[in-house]
Amino acid sequence: MSGYPMLDIFLSVLYFFGWVLWLMLMFWIITDIFRSDDLSGWAKAGWLVGVIILPLVGILIYLIARGSTMRERQEARARAADAEFRNYVRQAAASDSTASPASNGGAPSASDELAKLAGLHQRGVLNDEEFARAKAKVV
Predict the structure, then answer these.
(1) pTM score, two decimals?
(2) Beta-carbon count within 10 A of 52 CB
């Protein structure tokens, strides 16, 4: 351990985490460049060349020029994805609750029939004897 002092270990770990942070930032910026709708193809190519050829200067310039809107674009994409997901769930739930098994091309299942019978029994449409007879037919 005497050949590699503690300060050198600390600096090596610091350099490693700085390098990982730099790579993550670079990939995040490249992703933002490709996802930006407000940039033309040539502008995307120019930013990409700037970020890859001169990484330190290119990333710093990108963060200064477009860094404030990166978060806004990311939040807008997240909101749009969330709204799309919620709309899909609403449509799926509505189609499941309104579509009967018979309209799907098959006969109603036993559990559907039992659920209908239980509902009729709870509302008082069927008395106990009628409910028991209908349940025996289904089962």
Answers:
(1) 0.55
(2) 12
